[in-house]
Amino acid sequence: MKYYEPLFSLIVLKAACWSTLLFRSEAMEEVPRQILGGYKAATPTDEHVMNAAGFVISALHSGEAPEGKYSFLDTLAVSEGQGRIEGTELMVVNARQQLVAGMNYQLTLAIVDSDSRECRGALEVTVWDHFGELEITRWGQEIECNGVMG
């Protein structure tokens, strides 16, 4: 029996290790993991999100978007000096944020008619808020209105 004790102990130890690994991997699969430093959902009505969205509208108004990138801009009347587009309202459809040296906001925005509530155009954009100083770091793609409103 003396010769079998080390072998028996080794088998028990291996079984314990395997069961620990097996149960640990099952538990890890159940918990969704947030990527450290990655984007996470933001509330579309959050003050900072709305501020970033307003900055985008001002930039569109002043012609900062790449020329020809957003076809809906040709159909909208712009209020001179007001930083807004006449007869429209801004809707933040989706917002995500990432903490960096400041905050990045990935926004999906829709410009809707104030009266009919019809979508006039939509786009994706990324705004960097560096402690109050805003900058558009990426002009994203134009999105079909039915893709954001439906």
Q: Ranges with pLDDT <50 over ≥5 residues?
A: none
What is the helical fraction, as a range of percent?
25-40%
- How many domains comprise the coordinates? 2
Order of helices and strands: HEHEEEEEEH
Distance between the termini: 75 Å
The biggest sheet amounts to: 5 strands, antiparallel
* Radius of gyration over C-alpha positions, nearest whole angstrom: 26 Å
In CATH, the architecture of the largest domain is Roll
Helix count, DSSP H or I runs of 4 or more residues: 3
The averaged pLDDT comes out at 81
Give the beta-strand count: 7
| CATH C-level of the largest domain | Alpha Beta
List the helices and strands and how they pair.
Blueprint (H helix, E strand, L loop, with lengths): L3 H27 L9 E2 L5 H15 L16 E2 L4 E2 L2 E13 L1 E12 L5 E12 L2 E11 L1 H5 L1
Antiparallel strand pairs: 1-4, 2-3, 4-5, 5-6, 6-7
Organism: Odontella aurita
InterPro entries: Cystatin_dom, Cystatin_sf
Keywords: Signal
Written description of the protein model:
The protein is of the alpha+beta class and 150 residues long. The protein folds into two domains: 1-33; 40-149, Nuclear Transport Factor 2, Chain: A, CATH 3.10.450.10. It is 31% helix and 36% strand. It has three helices and seven strands, in the order αβαββββββα. The protein has helices spanning 4-30, 47-61, 145-149; strands at residues 40-41, 78-79, 84-85, 88-100, 102-113, 119-130, 133-143. The strands form two sheets. A five-stranded antiparallel sheet has the order 1-4-5-6-7. A hairpin with a 5-residue loop joins strand 5 and strand 6 (119-130). The radius of gyration is 26 Å and the shape is elongated. It starts with a helix and ends with a helix. The mean pLDDT is 81. Keywords: Signal. Residues 1-27 form the signal peptide.
